[in-house]
């Protein structure tokens, strides 16, 4: 493992994995180790052919049973983009500055259409139908990000597109059993990515059996390590939660999910035909 790669992993996790004596580090590994989301872009658009290639690579990623239950919508109609920005930018003004916006969809409709085409019953109308399509879309989202970053682009997923799932679905003409999973802001980054520290590997990589005995100490240690490298610039909603003397990742995430978020998404998913039992 060479020095640069090791340092990136140490910054990310506190310690680098053993890594053996491998010295020929694949480019993809370097890209993953050093990657970071991008929320500030150059104004110039990216070549449409490059975006199409990135979409193709994303859809080359694994798919459950090769069911291919994910699609990508590339937005290039200015009026539509303005409508989507209208939904997304309250709270996230940076999105308007992204030259491109894509939406990754979970799609269980095609599977049902195949059953109608081939005359077989669809005998899996339960939670798994939604879950599989959502996972497939998540895998494609990840591959979209990695393919874009490998081409020198910047990208950031946007879960806020699900804040107004029904309205977004109307704008994109999404039919039943097709649902938004995430948006993706895309463009040329104005600066190098920042490496966001992650929880240490001994908390998140288990050997044989799940073990969270060291969880609280591990989270406290992560809070401190992260604070040294990437302190929070502001505390979340001090009017509601007060001002904490020490403010780290765990306080921020607990505050974030102390407030309901997208609690109508289940209603939307049921309304477009999914049975979630
Ligand atoms: C499914 C998904 C949805 C996300 N939604 C948003 C979003 O709405 N706004 C945002 O600024 N970042 C969003 N992100 C980016 C995460 O905040 C980011 O990945 C995380 O803070 C870790 O930072 P890094 O990607 O730079 O390592 C999202 C990421 C994922 C995977």
Structure overview:
- The chain is α+β, with helices and mostly antiparallel strands and 277 residues long.
- It has two domains: 146 residues, NADH Oxidase (3-Layer(aba) Sandwich); 66 residues, no CATH class.
- Helix content is 43%, strand content 10%.
- The chain has twelve helices and four strands, in the order αααβαβααβαβααααα.
- It has a four-stranded antiparallel sheet with strand order 1-2-4-3.
- The longest helix is centred in the middle third of the chain and has 24 residues.
- It starts with a helix and ends in a 6-residue tail after the last helix.
- 25% of the residues are buried.
- Flavin mononucleotide (FMN) binds next to strand 3.
CATH architecture group name of the largest domain: 3-Layer(aba) Sandwich
Distance between the termini: 47 Å
**What share of residues is helical?**
40-55%
CATH homologous superfamily label of the largest domain? NADH Oxidase
Spatial arrangement of strands, main beta sheet? 1-2-4-3
The amount of beta strand, in percent, is 5-15%
- Report the major sheet: 4 strands, antiparallel
Q: How many strands appear in the DSSP assignment?
A: 4
Average pLDDT reading: 96
What class do helices, strands and sheet pairing give? alpha+beta
- The CATH class of the largest domain is identified as Alpha Beta
Q: Give the overall shape.
A: globular
């Amino acid at each position: 493992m060479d020095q640069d790669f090791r340092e990136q992993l140490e910054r990310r996790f506190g310690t680098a994995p053993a890594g053996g004596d491998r010295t020929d580090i694949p480019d993809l590994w370097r890209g993953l180790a050093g990657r970071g989301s991008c929320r500030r872009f150059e104004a110039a658009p990216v070549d449409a052919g490059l975006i199409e290639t990135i979409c193709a690579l994303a859809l080359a990623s694994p798919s459950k049973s090769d069911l291919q239950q994910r699609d990508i919508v590339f937005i290039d109609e200015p009026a539509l983009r303005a409508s989507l920005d209208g939904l997304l930018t309250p709270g996230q003004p940076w999105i308007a500055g992204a030259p491109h916006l894509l939406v990754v969809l979970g799609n269980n409709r095609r599977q049902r259409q195949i059953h109608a085409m081939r005359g077989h019953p669809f005998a899996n109308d339960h939670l798994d139908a939604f879950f599989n399509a959502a996972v497939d879309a998540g895998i494609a989202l990840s591959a979209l990000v990695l393919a874009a970053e490998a081409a020198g682009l910047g990208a950031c997923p946007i879960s806020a597109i699900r804040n107004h799932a029904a309205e977004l679905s109307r704008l994109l003409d999404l039919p039943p059993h097709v649902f938004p999973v995430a948006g993706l802001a895309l463009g040329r980054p104005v600066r190098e990515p920042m490496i966001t520290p992650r929880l240490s590997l001994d908390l998140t990589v288990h050997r044989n059996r799940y073990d969270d005995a060291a969880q609280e100490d591990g989270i406290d240690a992560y809070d401190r390590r992260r604070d040294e490298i990437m302190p929070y610039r502001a505390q979340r909603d001090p009017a509601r939660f007060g001002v904490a003397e020490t403010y780290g990742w765990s306080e921020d995430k607990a505050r974030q999910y102390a407030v309901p978020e997208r609690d109508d998404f289940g209603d939307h998913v049921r309304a477009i035909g999914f049975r979630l039992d």
